[in-house]
Structure formats: structure tokens, C-alpha cells
Amino acid sequence: MSALLRQIPENIPQDIRKIRIENSHLTELPRGSFENVSALEYLWLNFNNITVMHIKSLEYLPALKELRLQGNKLSSVPWTAFQDTPSLKILDLKHNRLDVLPEHALRYLPNLTYLDLSSNQLTIISRDVFYNWPVYQRSQRMEGPLEDVSNAVLALHDNPWICDCRLRGFVQFIKSVGPPIILMNSYLTCSGPKFRTGKFFHEVELNSCMKPLTSALDTNLTVPAGLNITLTCFVQASPSPAVWWTYALKLLRAFNVSTEPISEDTVRSELLIPAARPADAGNYTCMAANFLGNTSVAINLRVVAPWASTTAQGWAPAAPAEPGAHVEVRIAKQTVYGITLEWFAAAAAAAEPGEIWYTLLLGRYDAAQKDTIYIGPGVNTYSVTDLLPATKYEVCVAVRNQAPRKGQCVVFVTGSDVSQMEQREKLIHIVVIVCAMVLAVPAGMYACTAEALPGCLARCPGACPRRRRGSPAGQAAGSKESTLDSLPAGSEDGLCRPDGGRGAARKPPEPGKARPPHRNSADLY
């Protein structure tokens, strides 16, 4: 009890007749788990974590009489494993997760006197499960007194039974069962469908199962644009079918579909199409299916525009214009991706301004069909924010059921997709590049050019002819000194000498003449 066992011990003595391992950590019963204890008669493995039971886990246990697996996590049981336990009399599987009982489940339990399947997840089982049970078959062939036959206790309560046509045979079996088969709790309760929840088996009468049959009140509908349209189909089936709608071979969104039962075997499914447009026209298919098959019904929908513009192809008026009804339209605001419209209507004699409905048609200028938008009374502005940039559009506003007149349509072109912020960033990048190029030129270049160039231009014309008449060596020297790189930074002496020679002695200053003050490079700035 409460031991940290994760598997069946291997060193169990061969003459052990009873094993009880509870509240441990067993997770599976592998093949040949008890092959060395063939004398075993009682096996209790309650309240472990067993999820898997091998088909040969009970091999070599011909004397086993009692198997208890209560409170584990079994979702299925290999029922053929009980071929190796012909003497089994008690099988306890309550508080597991069993959700299916195959028809042959009890075939290999001929001597069973107690079967507990309560508190599992069983919803639908066939009566053939019990018709194939040898215990039930013997009771049906019994001709002598009941005392000669052993009773078999059957526990099936606390399961979420779904009381529809699939459970019809099992409910009939429960109602008719009697000794030697005894129900531990005969008040089995329905958990579904909703209208049968909480009812006892002996209170319900279940019909036979039926393949779905679909129908619709009208399979051809013609409606005006702008209205909310509801398509309806009725499905008669048992059990309750799954219903869905398709349009152009595509499954429609579930939040536009509502399905509810209107009787025991009939459901109604409705598809809502808000503000129907001509583009919504076509065939809508209501499909239904259960385990017996599927069927469908198609509804053809035709959407007629109430009116259309005479300024664009395909806009033909559906109703004559009322005299005196006119709408003045203007663009209040325009962006790259949208516009804001404003309009003012001169009301007709038959309508007050606050009671007028408007129809707005918007689309590309060259489009044959425009989007239709219906505007309620009291509204005189509308904004569109999902237009394409640099595209020509046309928009018209008119009183509902009237064709747009001259002046009620506006043609406009959306702006470029390049924003002002992007243009400003490009300009900043250009200015930064130009400034970087200017600052890359040495500052001394400007100083030399500004100070030395005027004096050179004034005195050099007289010296240059003499340089050309000088020696080649003098010419080479003069050529070398004529570059700006050879100019002294602090004085302009020696820029142009009459003799053209670089190595000539500097002419001494005249007596009595003041020598110009020396200026360093800082003064040049």
C-alpha cells in the first residue's frame, strides 16, 4: 500500500494466491506480468495510474477469480485478454475512463457474477454487448427454476449516457432485464441531448435512427441589396446531425450560422448574410450528416441593386427619382489612402431631412461595378481609409432608391505613397552628405588662398617674363615654387622675386622704413 512501485515485482513467490498493490505508481500491465504466479486467485490493483493493459498481461492465470482495477486511467481494455482467465468471477473497472464497449467485450467472461462499469465515460453502447454475453444467453435458454442459475450483478450507473436513437436497443435491454441479471442501480439517467437531460431510462421512448433529410421553404430567393438576409433550411434526422453551410465550395464562418432543435428529430439552421450585395449572389448549400449518411439542399440567392448610376456602366436606376431630392457632395479631407466625404441633401416634399436614407457608391473610376454602402438618416459624412494610393476613384451619393444626378458624383485621385516625412528625411540626408564633403577640404587651403592670392596676382605678371628668360634650372625652381603647397604660411615674402632664384639672399630692408609686423597663421583666421 502506497509503495513507490513502478512495475510489478519479479520475485513474487510462485504459491502466492492474493496480490494487492494500491496507491502506487504502476502505469502499465506489460505482457506476462504474472507468469511466475500461476496459482494467483485474487489481484487487486486499485488506485494506481495504469493506462495501458497488454493483451497478454493476464497470461498464465487460469485460476484467477477476482480482478479489481478501480480508480485507474484505463480508456480501453483488451477484452480478449480474458481468454486466459476462464475462472474469473469478479471484474471491477469502476472509476476509469472507458468510453467504448465493443460487441464482443463480454464474450470471454462466461462465469462472471459481478461486473462494475460505473463511473466511466460510456455514452453509447449496443445491446448486442449483452446479447453476446454467455451469462445472458444461458438465462434466456433456462427452462428450470431460477434457483439453479447464479445471479450476475451489473453496475452501469454514473455514465454520461446520450439518449438518442443509438441507445434505443440498450434502453430496451435495461427495461426488460431481470434475474438472473441484476442491476446494482436500475435508475440509469440520460445526460443528453438537452431536452432529455436528467430523465431516467424508463421515462424515455427512443425512435429508430434515420438518415438526414434536408428541405427549405424557398430554394430561389430574389432580394434587394442592402437588406439583412436569412437563409433557412430544416433537417430531419436521428441522431441529431451536424449541419454546415457552403458557398462556392467554401465552408462559411460558423458565427453567421445558428442551428437549434425545434422538435425531437428536426433541427433548423439559419445563415445570416448582413447587408447583402450583388457579389453575395449565388448558390448556398445547407449540408447535414450523421453516422447513417449525409444530404444537402441548395438555395439560389439573387441580389438586385435598388438603383444604379447613369454615369457608370452597370448603374441602371431601379426607381424613378423623386422631384426636388438633390444631394451636394464635396471632399472634406483627402489622404494617401482615403477620403472624407460630406454632403447636404435638399429634402423632397415627401420626406424630412432627418428621415432621408442615402446610398453611397464607391469604386475605381474604370470599374464596371461599384461598392454600395447604405447610410442611415441623420448622417452626412463618411470616411474611407483603405483605398489604393495613386489611383483614380469615383464616388456618388444619392437619396436612396434614386439615380445620382449631375453634380452628385466626384472623381478624385489618391496621393502618392511617399509621405512628407520620407521626403524630409531624404533632404536631410543630402544636406549631411554635402556638409561632410565641404568639411573634408583642409581649412588651411582657405587661409592661404584668401591671404596670398591677391598679392601674387598683383606682382607676378612682372616677374613671370623674366623667369621665362632665365636658365632651365631657374625655370624648374620657379615652377616648383609656384604651387600653393610651397607658400610660406606666415609671410608673403619671396612669392615673386625679380631674379627668379630661390637661393638668392633676401634683400635687406631699407633704412628708416618700418618692417611690416609678422603675422602668424592664427591671424589669418
TrEMBL record:
<keyword id="KW-0732">Signal</keyword>
<dbReference type="InterPro" id="IPR003961">
    <property type="entry name" value="FN3_dom"/>
</dbReference>
<dbReference type="InterPro" id="IPR032675">
    <property type="entry name" value="LRR_dom_sf"/>
</dbReference>
<protein>
    <submittedName>
        <fullName>LRIT2 protein</fullName>
    </submittedName>
</protein>
<dbReference type="InterPro" id="IPR013783">
    <property type="entry name" value="Ig-like_fold"/>
</dbReference>
<keyword id="KW-0677">Repeat</keyword>
<dbReference type="InterPro" id="IPR003591">
    <property type="entry name" value="Leu-rich_rpt_typical-subtyp"/>
</dbReference>
<feature type="domain" description="Ig-like">
    <location>
        <begin position="212"/>
        <end position="304"/>
    </location>
</feature>
<feature type="domain" description="Fibronectin type-III">
    <location>
        <begin position="325"/>
        <end position="417"/>
    </location>
</feature>
<dbReference type="Pfam" id="PF13927">
    <property type="entry name" value="Ig_3"/>
</dbReference>
<keyword id="KW-0433">Leucine-rich repeat</keyword>
<dbReference type="InterPro" id="IPR036116">
    <property type="entry name" value="FN3_sf"/>
</dbReference>
<dbReference type="InterPro" id="IPR050467">
    <property type="entry name" value="LRFN"/>
</dbReference>
<dbReference type="InterPro" id="IPR003598">
    <property type="entry name" value="Ig_sub2"/>
</dbReference>
<dbReference type="InterPro" id="IPR007110">
    <property type="entry name" value="Ig-like_dom"/>
</dbReference>
<dbReference type="InterPro" id="IPR003599">
    <property type="entry name" value="Ig_sub"/>
</dbReference>
<dbReference type="InterPro" id="IPR000483">
    <property type="entry name" value="Cys-rich_flank_reg_C"/>
</dbReference>
<keyword id="KW-1015">Disulfide bond</keyword>
<dbReference type="InterPro" id="IPR036179">
    <property type="entry name" value="Ig-like_dom_sf"/>
</dbReference>
<dbReference type="Pfam" id="PF13855">
    <property type="entry name" value="LRR_8"/>
</dbReference>
<keyword id="KW-0393">Immunoglobulin domain</keyword>
<feature type="region of interest" description="Disordered">
    <location>
        <begin position="468"/>
        <end position="525"/>
    </location>
</feature>
<dbReference type="InterPro" id="IPR001611">
    <property type="entry name" value="Leu-rich_rpt"/>
</dbReference>
